[in-house]
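Run Glycoside hydrolase family 1 protein through structure prediction, thanks.
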Amino acid sequence: MSKFPQGFMVGASTAAHQVEGNNIHSDYWVQENVEHSQFVEPSGDAVDHYNRYEEDIRMMAEAGLTAYRFSIEWARIEPKKGEFDDKEIEHYRKVIACCKENGIEPIVTMHHFTSPAWLISMGGWENEEVVDLFANYVKYVVERLGSELNYICTINEANMRLQLAAIMKKYMGSMGGGAKDAANADAMKKMAEAPKQDAPKEGDVQVGLNLGQGMNTMMMGMMECAKAFGLQDPRGIHTFVSMCTPQGDILVMKAHQAAKKVIKELYPDIKVGITLSLHDMQPEAGGEDAAAKEWDEEFRHYLPYIADDDFFGAQSYTRQCFDAEGNKYTPDGVELTQMGYEFYPQAIANVVRAVAKDFKGDIIVTENGMATADDSRRQEYIKTATAGLQECIADGIPLKGYMHWSLMDNFEWQKGFSMQFGLIAVDRSNMKRTAKESLYLLGSMATK
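Sure, done. The structure for Glycoside hydrolase family 1 protein is below.
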């Protein structure tokens, strides 16, 4: 396998809630533990990365990886509004130190989907106060840890809320309902009775969703969550990974800008960026306008808010195909991953090229990978994806790193532990780690 150039970061990514375990103050913990949860199982101890991070980082280093993108958990740092936990700051200081001791560049993400439960109780990501609250949390962390960091991603997949809103708007529109009616019993009944082909597919969005629940269970779960957050109406639940208004979409970008301002005031040399969930848009003749519109919604309309960022975090797993009428489809007979995506490792290089047309700063692939029980397929995915990225570098695109998703098999949100994204397998009965061949394959591409 060809190696990446000297200084190019080759690593893997995780998200705190998916790997650490016992994130008891977060909004996800609340949603996982109601009686009729939409989650197929709770995160619980996850894969105990909180206590075993030294072993996990050492395995990365021994395999040859040179970077680790991980997230700091807001709900741990600020479990109650305005009350910060210095013990948790020290935990993340130790994680960063462990990275450096093992020759691993730490890339910190300040928000990866999960938020403190108290934030949701006060309106969450549709409340304009979230901008200052997020910036205040970021300031607290960076004041204490910024001297140890070179890279910070403010928010992971800042466009995820809009993607979910688009899917549900299309779904509800096919039944004559509106997105605001999603918690209404009649609308929910229509959803349950809708033709199968009109329903959103779990592979339509790059996050683990559980769309297999019955209408009654879903309704009960929504009501239980509202009560747990102290809300009267389930429509008032605005987590980061939920439907949003156009205003809520822009609030995320304002939170990013506020956080970047705080970071730069404290440590001007830290490179700051954001990550977006993107697809490789591939139209047939006649589908070009639909593909261009989708790309604009996923990426281009955020450009005014990120144009001056130091880097952009590109995250892609597959492509989206458009027929002559502009409808999205999955080609017949293609290989699918456990997540329902098409196996299409060429997507990430195509996405990087598309991003580079408009974004003129550095680019880092902050997530790319596949869920599969067959590690030989993961290895093929990595080989094809990285070969395309090396061609991007040869063509002069300022690509600075590749972070594979994920370092280890973990908690894939509403789907639980069934999705196998990891370079490392974890036996959750005893938390034993076993490196897969794909870990060593990726590590062999780094030049130290």
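Residues 9-443 form a domain with the TIM Barrel fold (CATH 3.20.20.80).
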